[in-house]
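Researcher: Quick test of sequence recovery. Tokens follow.
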């Protein structure tokens, strides 16, 4: 359920691309910041989920993701474009650890015969 909400919220951000593109150089920098954060955190997310467990990594990722999403409008109002790009980078980083952590949970929670 959480992954579905996370994915749905990420996909909704594509719907606001037209309004972002009017303000931020075609919106490319906003989406680039998100995807760079996502790219940077996939492999470390896998290692972290192996070391600490997927449950803890998901808990911290969703907590950070929620806080940053809640404060993104405030960051944009107070810090402008650099604050928005930083927030989107952090959101991308937190989403990058989700799938490796979920796969780690699958391998530990489900018996080998049921996978």
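Model:
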């Amino acid at each position: 359920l959480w992954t579905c909400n996370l994915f749905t919220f990420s996909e909704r951000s594509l719907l606001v691309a037209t309004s972002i593109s009017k303000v931020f150089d075609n919106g490319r920098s906003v989406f680039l910041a998100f995807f760079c954060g996502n790219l940077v955190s996939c492999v470390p997310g896998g290692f972290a989920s192996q070391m600490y467990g997927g449950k803890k990594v998901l808990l911290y990722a969703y907590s950070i993701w929620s806080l940053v999403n809640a404060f993104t409008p405030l960051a944009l109002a107070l810090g402008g474009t650099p604050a928005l790009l930083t927030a989107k980078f952090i959101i991308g980083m937190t989403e990058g650890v989700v799938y490796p952590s979920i796969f780690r949970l699958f391998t530990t929670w489900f018996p080998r015969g049921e996978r």
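The chain has a mean pLDDT of 80.
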